Amino acid sequence: MNRKTTIILFLLISSGVFACINEYRTLLTGEVVHKERSSGLVWTRDIDTQKLKEISNHLLQSYERSDSIEYFSDYAATLIYLGEYQKAKKIYQEIEQKSPNLYTTASNLGTIYELINKPDTALAWIKKSVTLNPNSHGGSEWIHIKILEYKISKSDDFSTSILGLDFGDNPSPMNPHAYELRKLEEDIKHQLKERLTFIKPPNKIIGALYFDLGNIIAQTKDVQAAMESYHEAKKYGFESELLVQRIVTMQELANKAKPYKQQKQLIDFIKNHIVLLFSLVALTVFLLIVLFILFRKRRTV
């Protein structure tokens, strides 16, 4: 195989590997468009406990050799992921005494106190962390504060958004307050990603965040992606008549894309079979030519 052929094959293979997958999706207006697939889910990696323990031990050894607060802080962070909250809390309290007013200490202590169900203390530390670093977590910590304030209120009312957002009461979400939807989407996704590592369903607060996310994504992306968020809200235990109504509405809109999908599937099926047919014909012609040449050579001999 020559160099030119190798390069062409590589380009053909790589173009297939990195190509974006496009689908027919429905916008909230009812328009069906062919676009890159979007998702209403927030993905987070599963923790490899064994690997994390190895990293944790390595950080502890590094701290003992160097007496570096950075290593000590990172070691404590691994303990949070391993569920050793009290041990991690003691370390951060020690760090706070040695080097007060570090953003990482305040932020992680806030997380620990939330995880051990002390929202009042958690709120104080999270507010301090935001003061120390207003742009932390992409500026999304206002959501963390709202969640802690909701927990402190001991309310079980999810009839309104715990974030104070309002997307109307119509079957389709609206934006009557002219929110910056893209930024809201980014902030909620960031906070969900941080929390989903520690929190598994059911959890109505996570469900409420997913409901808000669905209301936003319906307007920024498409109804299929919004339905993924809505169904995830249900999975986490969030319940409301408006959620049910919006799932029905989004499904009706999503059904508009089905004929386009079916038509595309039929076209792809025909194309694939035509290609297969031409390939078989070409192979047959090639074999006949080869046989003809061999037959001519035998006759000549």
TrEMBL record:
Sequence ranges of the TPR repeats: 103-136
Q: Indicate yes or no for the key word Transmembrane.
A: yes
Q: Which residues cross the membrane?
A: 274-295
User: What InterPro entries does this protein map onto?
Assistant: TPR-like_helical_dom_sf (IPR011990), TPR_rpt (IPR019734)
Matching entries from Gene3D superfamilies are given as:
Tetratricopeptide repeat domain (1.25.40.10)
**UniProt xrefs under Pfam families:** TPR_8
Keywords in alphabetical order? Membrane, TPR repeat, Transmembrane, Transmembrane helix
**Mind telling me what this protein is named?**
Tetratricopeptide repeat protein
